[in-house]
Amino acid sequence: MSLTGALSSAISALNAQSQSLAMISDNIANSQTVGYKTTSASFSQLVTASSGASTYSSGGVTVLARSNITTQGLLTTTTSSTDIGISGNGFFPVTTAVAGGTTLYTRSGSFTLDNSGYLVNASGAYLLGWRTDADGNVVGGASADTLVPIDTSVAATSGSATTTTTVAANLPADAELNDTFTTSMSLYDSLGTANSMQITWTKTAENSWTATFANPTLASDTSTTTGTVSGSIAITFNSDGSLASTNPSPATIGVTGWTNGAADSVITMDLGTAGGTDGLTQYSSGATTPAVDLTGIESDGMAYGKLSSIAIGDDGAVSATYSNGKTITIYKVPVATFAAADQLEAKDNGMYAATLASGTAVVQLSGTNGAGSIEGGVLEASTSDTNTEFSNMISAQQAYSAASQVISAVNEMFDTLISAMR
């Protein structure tokens, strides 16, 4: 009967508006929650039977919760070096445990270092990333299988041996035969100890020189010998002053017997390109007393240093800075994308789980193949707008009140009907 249908329709309206108000309440409560995505009420008509011109069969309303997960929130600058946000599509992958945990996804990029050196969020989930070499290149391939919890303790200290020394200098063409000149170079052993070594340049013939090397000494105390050097380099120049060749080629020297137990060193001496003037040259000095004009001498390697700070920069590069002033990249944070991100299952603390409807995650480097770009030093603000939510709340309240009035009217009409039957 029509009164029963009206009552049923009004009750469905009360239920729908109650659920809508619950969504609005959550949105308002999380207006300041980092990475929060609003939930919207989507109302749909219910039909119980066919209606005609002379009869109407009421159905009512149902409500569905629509998650606005892909809506971009405003990126705001923070003072934490480990805060990150995504501009565009995607999520940060996290895991609930270092080993054997569940992989979840989040837009909330507020991460801090725990006591063990892992980057974690407020709920203790571990940020996943790819291990990199010092140049920031991903080791082992950028795939979901190579993701690991970001553990900064793997790079708690730094220090590496010198493998290449680059020299740019002019050896004076107007030097006398057997004239010698000395310069010094710095080098590090495999334990990061700083050393120095003298190079003696001797003119052996026209356009010909020899470089010999003294045993290395501590940079802090040149009276303390730290190893034994082997090898010398014969150098020839073209008549135009450019480098002709070196012997051996490439020019290398070795250091053995480091007194601190460091591994033996093999150092390539980069003296320039044959036929070029980008390294060693031989031109007249024009001076009364000729001398070597050293433009630059630089060795790679790194002194020992302790980890002093961690920062996540643009493109998801996790950088470690050490007490020796060196900064190296140790991990890369990926961006996980989904075919239907709005179908992810919401979890506590702004995290989501993949579902059959969302599809599986595809992990990408920041800003590649449709993935959003990671920005360092920012957080994504909540997408909840309190003005909009208050407006929606008023509409829900009015609809709820109107539906309750319908129930009151139906109740009175039932009373009238029952009274007429007595």
UniProtKB/TrEMBL annotation:
One of its GO terms (biological process) is bacterial-type flagellum-dependent swarming motility. The keyword Ubl conjugation does not apply. It is found in: Bacterial flagellum basal body. Its main location: other. It holds the Pfam family Flg_bb_rod. InterPro entries: Falgellar_hook_FlgE_sf (IPR037058), Flag_bb_rod_N (IPR001444), Flagellar_FlgE/F/G (IPR020013), Flg_bb/hook_C_dom (IPR010930), FlgE/F/G-like (IPR037925), FlgE_D2 (IPR011491), LlgE_F_G-like_D1 (IPR053967). Residues 377-419 form the Flagellar basal-body/hook protein C-terminal domain. Residues 9-37 form the Flagellar basal body rod protein N-terminal domain. Residues 170-295 form the Flagellar hook protein FlgE D2 domain. GO terms for cellular component: bacterial-type flagellum basal body; bacterial-type flagellum hook; cytosol. Belongs to the flagella basal body rod proteins family. PANTHER family: FLAGELLAR HOOK PROTEIN FLGE (PTHR30435:SF1), FLAGELLAR PROTEIN (PTHR30435). A flexible structure which links the flagellar filament to the drive apparatus in the basal body. This is Flagellar hook protein FlgE. It comes from Rhodopseudomonas pentothenatexigens.
